[in-house]
Amino acid sequence: MEDLKRILIVDDSPTVIEHVKLLLKDYNVKLNTAGSSFGMYQNIESYGNLTDLILMDLTLKKEHGLDLIEDLRANEKYKNIPIIIVTEYVTMDFIMRAKKLSVSHYIKKPIKKDLLINRIQEIINIYDLNEMNKGIETETVEEESTENINNENTSTDETVEETRANSEISENTEEETLEEN
Hints:
By secondary structure, this protein is an alpha/beta fold. The chain has 6 helices and 7 strands, in the order E-H-E-H-E-E-E-H-E-H-E-H-H.
């Protein structure tokens, strides 16, 4: 059984939170919600697992979403969590700052279901592929180390060829999609 993807919705509007929940109700995801930075940090990790994706509103009551993202990016534990900004207002300043903070995407309100689902699928597929590639790289390094210990005659050229072959395998791996129930 595939693990549920965990999505944290950070928005101070109960209406928006309920709307996003409704849009995602038929998909294989676990949703947590927060209306502030305090709630975000309480819900970013559950049962020892980090959230897989954050949907972040920009205009919270006492905080700005980009400031929260900046705090997340400064934290080693949370800096690689993909983030989609959900906002009514898009300016060039916002786009430039979001880009510097490695925001994955932004979606303009009102949120359209197809766009939201496509963005989530895209990010989860990239995240899953990156995680799979990390596993392949780790296995390659372990195999190479074991081979070098067991066989002193292993040449550098053979090791380079193995690494290239493993890279080609990872590039040809099919992406998983967000499954509908």
